[in-house]
Amino acid sequence: MLEIYNSLTRFKETFKPLHEGHVGMYVCGPTVYGDAHLGHARPAITFDVLYRYLQYLGYKVRYVRNITDVGHLEHDADEGEDKIAKKARLEQLEPMEVVQYYTNRYHRDMAALNVLPPSIEPHASGHIIEQIAFVQKILDRGYAYVANGSVYMDVEKYAKDYPYGKLSGRNLHDIIAETRELDGQSEKKHSYDFALWKKAAPEHIMHWPSPWSEGFPGWHMECSTMGTKYLGEQFDIHGGGLDLIFPHHEAEIAQSCAALGKESVHYWMHNNMITIAGKKMGKSYNNFITLEQFFSGNHPLLSKAFGPMVIRFFILQAHYRSTVDFSSEALEAAEKGLQRLQEAYARLQKIQPSAVSSQPSDLRQRCQEAMDDDLNTPFVIAALFDSVKAINTVWDGKGAISEADLNELREVWKTYAIDILGLRLEETGNGDDSQQKAFHGAIDLLLGIRLQAKQNKDWATSDKIRNELTALGFQIKDTKDGFEWSI
Description:
With 487 residues, the protein is an alpha/beta fold. It has three domains: 11-271, Rossmann fold; 276-420, Orthogonal Bundle (Isoleucyl-tRNA Synthetase, Domain 1); 433-486, no CATH class. Helices cover 46% and strands 12% of the residues. It contains 17 helices and 13 strands. It has helices at residues 11-14, 38-56, 83-91, 95-112, 128-140, 155-161, 172-178, 221-231, 245-260, 291-296, 308-316, 328-350, 363-372, 377-395, 403-420, 433-455, 459-471, and strands at 22-27, 60-65, 144-147, 150-153, 195-199, 215-217, 235-241, 265-271, 274-276, 279-280, 324-326, 475-479, 482-486. A four-stranded parallel β-sheet has the order 2-1-7-8, with helices on both faces. A four-stranded antiparallel β-sheet has the order 3-4-5-6, with helices on one face. Strands 10-9-11 form a three-stranded mixed β-sheet. Helix 12 (328-350) crosses helix 14 (377-395). It is elongated and about 90 Å long. The model has no long low-confidence stretch (mean pLDDT 91).
């Protein structure tokens, strides 16, 4: 039986992949019945950083992130209307039309956030045959039962042979005490038994034939099935939001042990929640803000539009296992911090080396230690900010840096800020590359005209350009080599 870890504290010391040089990673992806919101962005960015860091360390990573497009019911894991089927019924669309529309929009938002695509992105609806076979294995080993065409996990019987509640820290006695039995109102033996397969009601529009009924798989079944299909019966990392530990991931462990006789996952990793005024952000609470609304500023809780890199930076400023409380003010602070990094990175590319250095740096070591300490992205960012001071000192002519040290500093910034944290430091707006270049070129041209006017002592033209750009929100700084500007 594999040992379960809830994080990768002291990453290099703790992490031991099952196959040398190769890592299998599975992350619970979205249920695609609406636009992605900030709560969806956090796990996507968290595990994107892990994916990037594993590759940086030299591992060949197979990253699987699923799409839930069937079986995720409204009220709980076993009861209610399928969320995608409901959306399809209300909008008079085919369910897969809903799935495709919101999957496309999710991919668009993830690309904007610079989240790398996974190696494999399987859909639950595309693996019905495999899920039926997985359920049959559990039945064959005696840990499930059929009731009126549905199949349920026999949790009490399972718990006699395996430690149910190992991941969440719950035990069956606690679960029984928290669960209210409703006599005669359920086909389950016990209310804490969970569905592996559900018989579809006549009005249910998403269903498939099985040995037990025309129906659909339980929500938990898709991850057990697709994880082991693409990564093997035992694989390295399974990730998702903290709210998935119970019942979803606990049920996955039970299903895998019941079907295979062993746990499938070596390391479990969970990102914490994003909250608004202390309450979890999510569709079920009707307090979410979509990523599209962040990018446009079209929401009453937003003071302005915020670019995708601001959202990414905001999330990375907190450790992935800590809660992040959203506010527009916090995003504005993140925006200013990101601008400081962008300005420093631009200066770093323009600095000229000297014969010797007056600014020794331990930046690489600090960043490496922070990443090895349970992916401590806030410490990486703090180390980068400390190096900003050194960059500005050299830029202002109050320090020096040798060519070797300058190349090292540039390489560390590229490695950790861009390649691992995934920040696009070259960007200052929301346009594409061609728009960015045209925009920068136009501002540089104007400020070049202003510089020429100053040299000609044409103060009226010089002041007019500066004042009008300042009124539009630009910050302009005259330097010994010309000028700098930012928004």
